[in-house]
Amino acid sequence: MSNKVIHVLYNDDDILMDAVKQTRAAHHHIEEIYTPFPVHGLDKAMGLAPTRIAICSFLYGLVGLSIATAMLRYIMIVDWPQDIGGKPSFSFIQNMPAFVPVMFEMTVFFAAHLMVITFYMRSKLWPFKEAENPDVRTTDDHFLMEVSVHGDVDQMVSFFENTGAVEVKVIEKH
Amino acid sequence: MYTFSSRLKTFSFILMIVGVLGIGYSFFTAPKDINDVEAILADQHGHHGDAHAEAADHHEAKDAHVQTADHSEAAHAEASHDAHGHAADAHGADAHNDEHHAHLEHVLHQLQNKPWAAVYVAALFFMLIALGALAFYAIQNAASAGWSPVVFRVMEGISAYLIPGAIIVFVLLVLGVMGTHHLFIWMDDEVVAHDHLIQGKSGYLNGTFFLIRAVIFMGGWILYRQYARKNSLAQDEANDNSYYKKNFKASAAFLVFFIVSESIMSWDWIMSVDPHWFSTLFGWYVFASFVVSAVTVIAMVTLYLKSKGYLEYVNTSHIHDLAKFMFGFSVFWTYLWFSQFMLIWYADIPEEITYFITRINDYNLPFFGMVVMNFVFPVLILINTDFKRLSWIVVMAGIIILCGHYIDFFNMIMPATVGDQWFIGAGEIGAILFFMGLFIFVVFSSIAKAPLLAKRNPLIEESKHFHY
What is the ipTM of this complex? Predict the structure, then answer.
């Protein structure tokens, strides 16, 4: 089986959106779309599943809150309950207001940083990673849609030429 | 065009009638003199009551002293203690009897304040909801918000309650200055004569100046409300945007006036029930409390009208935005509540900390319960994007938030006026029902007076197609 793909280039996001809708209607499988900036509504038009990163972040926040609570309770109440300026250190709840700023910041810290790291891992981004850019123009002013080839190649090429493309290429993928 | 449904009108009248009955009952059952108080206290304390009754007959002064101290507030207990020291003297019994008498006097004042405080809290709460809706409306205008013009008429309708609401609050303030009720202790010349702290503040806290400030603030708010409403209706029929521009300028000017007057208003009408106590961020705290209630009411009225099919262009994105404001302002309120509490708790300066000691000792459940209702619940429910688009979730969260912020105002007023004699009974619930009925009647009458879509607002098209 050949692993040919078609690279269709556009120079306008509105044309791209229309092309995506036509492509989906014609049941061609869109592998990937490369754009120089976020195109509002593109994920919906492509039918991508919504992100779950907010749910991750919420859970990370709970982790941060738990760690802060456990840490402060152990250090300030259990391990060495000193009298520091008359603050009551007999139980956690008695001295809780003084811990809230730390608990809040730890919640935000964990929620933010772990979410960012999750994003990097899920999007496979790291320093020295080799860029996966099929065409340098897509970082500047062009939009590229990559479609997997099935059936008649010529028919597909003519279909994409009619969607307002500025360039259609058939590429052999390794 | 909305027509005020006769069922809702009947409902609002029923609320008002039931409310008046509740308020009337609480005034009727308030104790008239010390003997009534003695009976009530005997009733409250069950078997302790016997010893208590004997105290009145000058018997077993020492025993009764313990009883008295039991249900005295901290300061009073100290005073009793002094009296106990004198008990060894020949005049011990007399001295103690005076103390007991003073205690009964004190409880009598608290119980007589109770129905007034119930009415005052509810009147203030509903008036501030209307004021919050007006401030939110002014912000939307001054910020040229593109999403909200489809709900402008709802906000204008809610702000209509400001006029009757402000008049009622003003009447209550005038009655206070006249000495009909004793919610504001600094209005009592007898008290001020013996209180150096209040004397030092009397340049600011005196009846005349107090009422002048109230007139200026309420007058300013009502003036902007009427002017903005008039321009908003005139813009519907206009050929250019001149009325819109007038409203833009008026809103910006109003917001400047509002933030100054709101801050002073909160010192005058709320903080001054505790004239010995002060807090710098109090104005912001009060603002956060009523603006979140106002946004909640806007969302709930919008959902009601939408469910009746009157708001064609309101979609789930508008509801989503309102729910986001509910969420955001809830967190903002909590931030200010905690900042005020934690700063005072941490430093623990006696003159400030008494404010929270009375609340934590006598109002433990309402004081911490409202944090759960106003923070924990909305944060957990409204953090979800999908939930913010569901009507029933927004309404349910809204009811909790409104109840929570009523308790917030209850916590601000009651400890200084009724102390540990508080109870959410006929008077309090009656007052809420009465003002809720009046609020519903005024708001929906006002909404019925104009089309629900601001036709020629320059941002109305954007708002109609608003999608998030």
Answer: 0.90
